Amino acid sequence: MANDDEPTPSRAAGQPTPAAAPAVNTASAAQPRVRPPGAPGIGSIFVLAFLVILVPGVAVYVVLDWAGLPIGGASMLGLLVVFLGLGFFPTVLRRLGWVPTKKRVPTKKRGS
Is the dihedral of CA 78, 84, 90, 95 positive or negative? Predict the structure, then answer.
């Protein structure tokens, strides 16, 4: 049996043992967080990124290559579309409600 002066994970050395320590409900602590129905998962966000960023860039490259533009020009314009998709992706996430919008802090007008 442990001595009262030895430290344990629940109390430091030399502290008295609590008489009526509340029982910890381990069942509620062990349950994982539950997502609300209809909330996007991480897989949905990756699929959306694939559709917003990569697919349009590849489609532009394929169409321009098919139209006869040399491979360098078609790939550069396709890459430009990928970069535009990267910039537009956070806006898509906010508009879908998957990422909360930033709170705007009202600023004082000059001269007021």
Answer: negative
For the chain, give the number of residues. Answer: 112
Alpha helices in the chain (DSSP H): 26-30, 42-49, 55-66, 71-96
List the structure tokens of 99: 């990422």
Cβ atoms of 77 and 64 closer than 8 Å: yes
**In 3D, which of 57, 61, 80 has the Cα closest to residue 70?**
61
How many Cβ atoms from other residues are within 10 Å of residue 78's Cβ? 20
pLDDT by residue for the chain (112 residues), tens only, comes to: 555 555 555 555 555 555 655 555 555 566 776 766 767 777 888 999 999 999 999 999 999 999 999 999 999 999 999 999 999 999 998 898 888 777 777 777 776 5
